[in-house]
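INPUT
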Amino acid sequence: MSLKAYIITRIILAIPMMLILLSLIFFILRIIPGDPVKAILGGKAPIEVIERKRHELGLDKPIPIQFVEYLGKLMKGDMGKSTLTGRPVWDELMERFPATVELTLFGFSIAVLIGVFWGAEAARKKDKTMDVSARVFAMLMYAIPIFWLGLMFQFLFGMILRWFPVGGRISAAVSLKPITGLYILDSLIQGNWAALKDVLWHLVLPGTTLGLVISSIFLRMVRNNTVLMLSQDFVKAAKARGIKEKVVLYRHALKNAFVPILTMMGLQLALLLAGAVLTETTFSWPGLGSYLIMKIRYRDFPAIQGTVVFFAFIVVIISILVDIINALVDPRVRY
Amino acid sequence: MRKFLVFLIVALALMVFAKDFIVVGTTDKIRSLDPARCYDYFSSNILQNVMVGLVDYKIGTSILKPMLAESWDVLDGGKTYVFHLRKDAVFEDGTPIDAHVFKYSFDRVIKLNGDPAFLLSDVVEKTEVVDDYTFKVTLKYPFSAFISVLGYTVAYPVNPKVYPENEFYEDVPSASGPYRVKEWIRDVRIVLEENPKFFGEKPKTKVIIINFYESAATLRLALETGEIDVAYRHLDPRDIIDLKGREDIVVYEGASPQIRYLVINVTQKPFDDKRVRKAIAYAVDRKRIIEDVFVGLAKPLYSLIPEGMWSHKNVFPERDLEKAKELLKEAGYDEKHPLTIDLWYTPTHYGTTEADVAQVLKESLEETGVIKVNIKYAEWSTYIDYFLEGAMGLFLLGWYPDYLDPDDYVWPFLSESGAKSLGSFYSNKFVEELMIKARGFTGESARIPFYEKVQNILAEDVPYIPLWQGVATCAAKKSVKGILLEPTQIFRYYILYEE
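OUTPUT
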């Protein structure tokens, strides 16, 4: 199959995938107990008010009709309004998403750096100190609850050493006009160096927490796959031809080990972009993860559905991109 | 001369670099800054600092005073209110706040039918502009608590140039109060700055920055590291106790109008037996809840009308296990045939202490030796579903008043419609008549006897068991002054300052 045909096939297959996911979420939300209107008003407003509100939101219609109406609006790009705030769901997602993107990219970068370089070196020095320490580190980071690690960092670096702030995206005294919502980019656009420094300073603790935990997955995978590759004949042949060890490692072994690693990294990135709930909660980072938790608590159907649709869209895009990159790196993949 | 110059430079530097802002941290969130929609604590809190209404509470008290209304007349036996408005009040863009604005605002609230709208739509028949500065409201029936309702944000006037008539407005409000909103990044922070157009006293601090946090732990750390100056809502009780031990931080405590109680579904077996309900009322251990769970940061409550509110009367008995056993025996329960019941709670809506409260209640009731308690829980939205459907027989619930009047502590609980929406399904026409009569009188002294009778019947019929009333807490740097935890729960940023 040509690359073009492969890409088109992947895109077409994404449509039914999203439709199935959307339907599942829509119907499950309406089957589980918990009415969204009562969640917001219940215990305070009279029953007549609750019933009137349900009618206004169309929640008293039969579920199949609600679904058809929802799909119709979605086709027009209308995700509906949050029952909790009354604001368009899309607007709320766009307010939260940049925070998640910033945290994800920062953490992901740390995870990739640690995972790839330490993993590769660990594979090269198999069973030596470098390798053993990598495996112990990976096991520890995988086992440690992320919120505990975050709390410890807050305590040590925030409270005791006072090196970094304990939460939030920006200091109270720093003024930055949000343009894209990506504070690093916004401060660069505005030439606001004080804000840039402050925003980066705020990113360190949550980003490092996230990065360290995710790195454990990358580290093990890179190390194991590279060890496998290093035992292959073509690597032995390359060494026999006198090619330097580092070149053999990075240009031959690691590159060939990378297809499954890339797939896993891509999916991990997609998961992070849905919001790292525990990290966001620990560091009061106003991203998608904490947004979704709050909306679930109040059974805010439009917001939950919108977030899941958005997340599904991200996962689909990223998995298509990963598949394309894999197909480029390894032509065998597309056949 | 040299010393004088050094002194001058230092003084100037202090003036230039002196912080003219205070940073407040909270785990609360703002849902809406539209008075027609605002029905949660923190949104109201912000509006109470950037807007004003017809009346306000005197600082530190629950006594109402004129604000935008200089005076008012109550006519037609309490059915008609005529407000005489002050002539110098404007919104931040200079738009005068007159009778037309009030009519627009009230009618808008009723028309849009948002969350708090029933507070006006249930009682208001019509609104009229008598002249530019005279606003008339006719009620459907005499309602003496109406002035208290006007103290709530639902009755705040909105700028017709900013707030559209036919839809809610979700952006920065048009200020009429001591502060205006300078910046608002949802769930990140809101910045309030002095409103130059406000007719009243200037705020003591020009700028207030409010940061939003996701967890109490981070809020506490932020205060301890100096990232914030004030932590208000919600620190854990144990954090409060720890912070009390710090010399650089002051912990403030104040009366809270919040009440917590058990609801009993009087239509469900075995709770349809009054003796069972009374036995539970005798067996609960309020003291242990307050000491073990809240480390002293709560007060025992013996009526639905809290202590501090006029007409409050302690009507529920102190703990008496023998009396509880006696009543249960009369109802047919003993050690061999114990009463088995489910006790419900919701794990996060009221904070993280609910599970502990439920456990203490279980242990207190089981101390009788005649009751077996199964603890069950459901997440908030499911919890509401269950109690509205009558699926729960005994469960924990809480109440924040919409307006400070005994009526708001009895009508929503003991009227038939109110009891239905709170899951007790209690119905007593006589009690309802008493509450309606109380509404028809103005003046506390005329209404007190009715509320005392209502409370007596409450203790006799036991559709609810009051447990404790909250204590509001706030922790702040020692240098921050002016913090006042008022009985109205209004937290006024405009009286805060830093020494």
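end of record. Chain A is about 75% helix and 0% strand.
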